[in-house]
Amino acid sequence: MKKIACLLICSAVFTAALAVEKVETELERTMGDMNRAFRSLKKQVRDPVDFAGALASVATLRKSTEAAMTREPAMTADKSPQAQPEFVAAYKQGVKAMLKVVDDLEVALKANDAAKAVELVGQLSSQQKEGHRKFKKPD
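Predicted structure:
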């Protein structure tokens, strides 16, 4: 009987947790698209045979990164009104830096420069981690 009661309580808690659904922002959807393209890209650059697929992932990554440039991080609202412009400017500067690396990556892939492509994907990974540290609200 205790096992059944425990199971029912756990089920109720789990169901309640599902009911409290987080609303996803436009930026989070855009970042999700970027993340999916980036994960594919990390695999594709390891194999020069798959550079055509990598170029498609770069195109998706570029499109999503450009879209991210037009949005503001949710953390902006947590900043004082005086600090918000500087915070948004720093965010946009980081996104511009990412776009530069994405452009360089496209050039490397078109030149079949696997070593440079792997290096640039590493740079994107570092930029992603740094950007999330600075501009993403903790989950």
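Summary: Residues 25-135 form a domain with the Four Helix Bundle (Hemerythrin (Met), subunit A) fold (CATH 1.20.120.10).
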